[in-house]
Amino acid sequence: MKINVNNAEIKISAGDVKQFPRERLPQIVLSGRSNVGKSSMINALLGRKSLARVSSSPGKTVTLNFYDIDGKIIFADLPGYGYARRSRDTKRGFSTLTESYFLKNPSSDLIKLVIQLIDVRIGPTEDDLMMIDFLSKSGLPFIVTATKADKLSPSKLIETVSNIEKTFFSGTDIRVIPFSSVTGQGKQELWKLILKAAE
Known about the structure:
This protein has five helices and seven strands, in the order E-E-H-E-E-H-E-H-E-H-E-H. By secondary structure, it is an alpha/beta fold. The chain has a single domain, classed as P-loop containing nucleotide triphosphate hydrolases (Rossmann fold, 3-Layer(aba) Sandwich). The protein is globular and about 45 Å long.
């Protein structure tokens, strides 16, 4: 699949399952806690600075944002989770929207890949592990990326990623892909996986 990443635009910020796109296009999903770098990843993958807005207030994004990439792929940016300042009702609302996307979405058969983001400096949180467990049990194809890789030295990054894989994913085929929206590390590898899944 050839794709012009420069031809990208936000399609809709959906707050309800009725607003989800109905086009028969493969969907690539970004999932992760608030402030893990989902918007920065989208901008980096598309070579843009501000297509996806990077919030200065973690947990502010309460919608599910869909991006049209060259009329061939849709990026679905799930609401961030796990930010402590949210009220219980708001947290429940976020999980309801995310659950609706996976469980009540008429186009759920178009979910071709979930990119699960974790912060390399923190490792998987309890919420991250719950999402990974859900993805594993649901049979949805997913990969795990460790964001903010530029925050660690190359040697420390290798050691940290290895420790995360051994501690949390031993005995599975899950490997962690380091990613940096600053240096572009992991960008090429992610695009290969995205395009392979979309085909």
